[in-house]
Amino acid sequence: MSPTPRRVTAVDTYDIRFPTSRELDGSDAMNPDPDYSAAYVVLRTDAEDGHEGHGFTFTIGRGNDVQVAAVQALRAHVVGRPLDALCADPGTLHRDLIGDSQLRWLGPEKGVMHMAIGAVVNAVWDLAAKRAATPLWKLLADADPAWLVSQVDFRYIADALTPEDALALLRAGRDGAAAREARLRAHGYPGYTTSPGWLGYSDEKLTRLARQAVADGFTQIKLKVGADLADDLRRCRVARAAIGPGIRLAIDANQRWNRDEAVRWTRALAEFDPYWVEEPTSPDDVLAHAAIRDAVAPVKVATGEHVQNRIVFKQLLQAGAVDVLQIDAARVGGVNENLAILLLAARFGVPVCPHAGGVGLCELVQHLSMFDYVALSGTTEDRVIEYVDHLHEHFTDPVRMRAGHYAAPTAPGFSATMRAESIARFTYPDGAFWAADRAQRKGAAA
């Protein structure tokens, strides 16, 4: 008699919020008061090894409860799944989740439901890597190219990337992979920092943090712009004076501008030699990005953190609308869809510089870039991962920076596991922090 297969037994969800708005951490022209938050999911099983799958999607406060509800709506597709089959082929669940016809109507493949799918799918990959006793980047880098191709949904992108194209790219990526893995382990993956550049910071704080970034080995920093041109001119002048001419300075408008406004504003800031202008307009406006790119060169155009799916990424690449593609580990449909986007970028020869300016995003996306370097693009030239220096202490396997580089994770999984005490303290609205905060505010109002 064959043993009973082990299964997923529960999908637990948590609304976790951190009060980052109180220090203006994360503030930008479109999001002046973000409370960095995670709609957090834990997959539990009946396996003896006790491993759990952890995943989340990032929000900035209010609305996190909506995102948690969306994750909960996916439970029926996950609970009861045979564990071995799920971890051997996460693509089966990915296809089932994006194919739920009644939930698909809310997208399709975009918005709150799609982000919820990404959280669940990422939790499956975390579980698979833990069961394989390897970090996710290594699991992906060592995987058979044909299997990786099987994890990608080519619907709607086959006019730009076929399964045959993807297989050829991945097979070519295996050449020299062992040497690149050794270099990655020895030197890490280059990062850049946004920590000095939040819009709400004073010039003094900007100067201090920018100088510290250079001292810490970063060769690129980023400033938020877009609220007031005179203010941006002053802040860029302050930043350039602090870092000197040899450090790259990127600017990020967070979707603030119309097309022509983006051109005028970027040209006005060109005297400070910005390396790229990020999210100059709506993330859905492919043609505007193409027009802006033509008009502001040699300043590069970067976007992607709010791009909703592989189809829009495909169009940005087909239209020649971006110089730098920015994936987000928790915006699209999880690892599977990010594999598609990385393959599209490799097909078009466009560098990927991920977004990571949120709780846990640095922890996640480092794995995708490291896989890309070792087993797909084969280079870190003009490639950097965003780094933000806060909230890492809430994770059991936080990022480690060395001389401006991400050290390769060695712990099994997707680096997504949050500390139990952090979950208990910052779950909204009744976690210890929020309950005490509510009582304090009530007392002050009495």
From TrEMBL:
The organism named in the record is: Streptomyces spectabilis
Annotated InterPro entries: Enolase-like_C_sf, Enolase-like_N, Enolase_C-like, L-fuconate_dehydratase, Mandel_Rmase/mucon_lact_enz_CS, Mandelate_racemase_C, Mandelate_racemase_N_dom, RHMD-like
Which GO BP terms apply?
amino acid catabolic process; carbohydrate catabolic process
The EC number(s) attached to this protein equal 4.2.1.68
Q: What catalytic activity does the UniProt entry give for this protein? A: L-fuconate = 2-dehydro-3-deoxy-L-fuconate + H2O
> What lineage does the source organism belong to?
Bacteria, Bacillati, Actinomycetota, Actinomycetes, Kitasatosporales
Q: What keywords sit in the KW lines?
A: Lyase, Magnesium, Metal-binding
GO molecular function (one): magnesium ion binding
Q: According to its UniProt record, which cofactors does this protein need?
A: Mg(2+)
The first-level EC class reads: lyase
Domain (Mandelate racemase/muconate lactonizing enzyme C-terminal) ranges: 203-299
Q: What is this protein called?
A: L-fuconate dehydratase
Superkingdom to which the source organism belongs: Bacteria
